[in-house]
Structures are given as structure tokens and as C-alpha cells.
Amino acid sequence: MSVQLDRRSEIRADARAAYARMVEIRLFEEQVNELFAAGLVHGTTHLCQGQEALDVALAAVLRDDDVVAATYRGHGIALALGMTPASVLAEIMGRSTGCTGGVGGSMHLADMSIGLLPTSAIIGAGLPIATGAALAFQTRGEDRVAVAVFGDGASNIGAFHESLNMAAVWRLPVLFLCDNNVYGEYSRIDRTTAVLDLSRRAAGYDIPGESFDGMDVDTARTAIAAAVDRARNGGGPSLLEARTYRFAGHSRADKALYRPEGELEEYRKRDPIAVRRSALLAQGVSEGELAAIDARVADDIAAVVATVSADPLPDLAAMFANIWTEPAAAAR
Question: What is the CATH number of the domain that holds 60?
Fold first, then answer.
């Protein structure tokens, strides 16, 4: 088994490992923020602090041969699925050791060895991609599941409705997982969306729909597991709405000054890492054990930053490496 799939198996079996992965995602994103501020991350980047529980819950449920189509806010999903911090950070920093050779950057992570389809910077683009993957699985008679992870804003675009309708008609093995973090880019959901309980939209396609607390990893895992099992066993698609919150702004250029006073502080009371930490303490895990995990993960992330910062940049030819393929010679 590869190192990356070993990382996935850890969080399935061990509650402490799942907690460690959530801490890893949080510290990783904080480090990316610092690197961006220092001018070492080019373009922009979108961080997912506050959404770690959902990422880890999804990865803990899926099989190694299932696939995920995620958004440009995908660092946490990549890490949760098992991609190493070095591979993700190298891609974000444009290094040749990154998961796509440093030519994709923050918004275009991909690694088919862990089932991560290429992430997309286009809002909602993963919805029809996951639907197509599910159609392929059904056509080939494979008991695999595709997952589209998208934000609340994407639930208002045409591709959302087209994908749900097609998946419902053909009973495709796909999960539509809406990560409702309250804001679609810079707009609060109640200013753009008439139906605030987004899982109710499932009724229009006669498929199951459910909303749940996406900041509690156990709650999220239970809801996702039921929907994935249903899809895998021929029950067709489901629409899940995970209610989370984005602690950072839309991108690193966004200070989120549009948020109402006190809103961020209120959501921080439900910080998914604090929620998980409290649950583990209640189960008998000691403060010392958790502090040791925190320290180990912090040391690991610091070491990754030092290593990746010294990695080579890709040469100019790398940007043309995966654009086309030569046609096969005509049969004689």
C-alpha cells in the first residue's frame, strides 16, 4: 500500500489519527497563509479553516477506489484523502515535486492514486464531472461511488440542477455533498438563496436529502456513510448539506469585512478541532496525549515547509507536458 493510502487507512481506524489529520489541515492552512503573505505562493489561494471535520469524515468513509471532485478550496480534502503535506505544499508553491509537477497550483490539486479528480476553479464544475464518473462506474458494473463536493453558492447554478436531475433519472452512484460555509465568495447565503435549507432541493428530484452539523466529525461521518452505502448498493444519489463555516475570507485577498460583527466569534465556539478535542477527552484520552499530537504535527509541518522551500522549480517545458497526446499510428 502506498504512503498516501496508508494515511487514509489511519483515519478510518483511529480516532486520534483523525484528530491529528484535522490539526494537520489547520496548521497546514495557517502555514500557507504565512507563505502567501511572504510572497512565496503565487496567484491566490483559498483556505478551509473551520471545515476540517467534513474533509476528514468524507475521507474516513470512502473506499480507496472511490473518487472525489472537489473545489478550489481543496487543500483539506487532499490532505484528508491521504495526499502528503509535502506533495500538496509543493504544488501550492509551484515546485516540481508537487502533485501535478508544480504547474497546477493551489486550485488544481489532483492525484488519482487517492481518488482525487482534478480540482476546479470554476464554481460547480465538479458536479457534472462526478456525475460522469458515476455513470462510468454504473456502465462498467463497478460498485464504486463518486462524490461532488461543492459550496452553497454552486447550488444556484445550472450544472447543479442538471447533474441532480440526470443522476436521479439514471439512479447513479453519486453523492452530492454541499459544504455550506455560509458565504458564496463574498455574499452571505441569505442574500443570494431563497431556500436556506439546501437539502430541501433534493425533493425536486425525488432523491434523499439531509442537512447536518458539518463541524462535528462523528455527525458528518454518520450522514456521509449512509449516503455512500445507499449509492454503492444501487439506491442512487443523495444530496447532503453540511453546515460549516469559513474562518478565513474567500481568498487571501479578502479580509471578510462584510461579515456581521460577532459572527466569526460565534462560529469559533463550534471550532471543529475544539469539538473533536472535547469528545476525545470525554472518551478518556488525556490532555497530554492531545498536546503531544499537536506538537508532533506542528513539527512535521515545519519540516515540510523547510524541505519544500528547497525543492526545484519546474522547467518551462513542464507547462506543455499534459496538453495533448500524439495519435496512434493508423492501422494498416
Answer: 3.40.50.970
